[in-house]
Amino acid sequence: MPLATTTKMFEKAYKGGYAVGAFNVNNMEVIQGVLNAVAEKKAPCILQISKGALDYAGMIYLRKIVEAGLEEHSDLELSVHLDHGPDFELAKQCVDNPIFTSVMIDCSHLPLEENIALTKQVVEYAHAGGKVVEAELGRLGGIEEHVQVSERDAFLTDPDEAERFVAETNVDSLAVAIGTSHGAYKFKETPVLAMDLIQELTKRLDGLPLVMHGSSSVPQELVQLCNKYGGNLPNAMGVPEDMIAEAAQYGICKVNIDTDIRLAVTAKLREFFHLKPEVFDYRKYLGQVRESIKEMVMHKIDVLGCGGMAEG
Question: What is the pTM (predicted TM-score) of this model?
Answer without folding.
Answer: 0.91
